[in-house]
Request: fold
Amino acid sequence: MMMHQQIKDQIKTAMLAKDTDRLSALRNISAALTSEVMAKGRKPAELATDKEALTVLKRLAKQRQESIEQFTLGNRPERAEAESRELEIIKGFLPTGLSREEVRVLAIAKKAELQITDKAKLGLLTGAVMKAAQGAADGALVKAVVAELFD
Reply:
C-alpha cells in the first residue's frame, strides 16, 4: 500500500479513536502531500508516490526539528513539546536512517575509493557519501562525519 494511502487510512483511525494530536499531525502530513502532488501539476485527488512522500516527510521532519530548537531557545516549552509529538508521528513513517558509526564506515570507504587526502575536496567526499547513502543519512550528520575525517 502506498504511504499516502496509509496516512489517509490512519486519519480515519485517529478520528474514530478521537486522538486529536495524532489527527492534527496526520492532516498536516496529508495536506503537505497533496500540495506536493498539485505542485507537480497533477490533480489533488491523486496520491503522492512513495518517493514523493518520503521527500515531503523528510522536509516536514526537518522543519519540526528546527521549530523545536527555536521554541526551546524562545523559552516556549509547551510549543516545543507539541512540535516534538508531531515529529515523532512523522518519524513513524520514515525509514530508520544510518547511525553515526554507519556513516563513518561509509565515509572512510568512499575516502579510500576516491583517494581523497586533501581537505579542499571535502565537498566532493560529502556528495559521494550522500549519494552512496541514498537518502538514508542526514546531510548535517554526513558533513560532520566527513569533516572529522580530515581533523
In short: The chain is about 75% helix and 0% strand. The two ends are 46 Å apart (CA to CA).
